[in-house]
Amino acid sequence: MKKSSVIIVLITFVLSVVLVGVFGMKMISYNTRVYIQKITPTGVTLSRTVSGAKIGSGERENEYVLVLPYFEELKIRIDYEIDPADATDGVVELTVPDPADRETVETDGLNILAKKKGSARLRYRAKDGGGAEIVVVLYLRDPDVYYGFM
Q: What are the backbone dihedrals phi and psi of residue 67, each rounded to the nearest 5 degrees, phi first?
């Protein structure tokens, strides 16, 4: 091989490495996961019309309070937003951790069925493993007492 051929091959190789290094594609991880950082309740949907039903902040961080009148067969759904909205696995599960609270409410997916007057702690937790969760303390009061305080 001639010297000029070797020099041309070396120059081409060096230029290609420099061009790919400068203008090449940015390397990103193939399996990038975006975890839910925060769950924020946005509203309440009920099977009956109830005036003044809204969620307030609780005493602790990530704790909320909801006071409702108790009606037989009352179905409750607490709407929420997740942050970031483009989380890889945006699924949130609802649980009632205390067995005593399960006498007051029953859950079916994200729906809550009121069984009797009382209070219950509801835990909304992200299923993606990021650890985001909130607790909603639900108080079901006698309708006369509920509407008497409003």
A: -110, 125
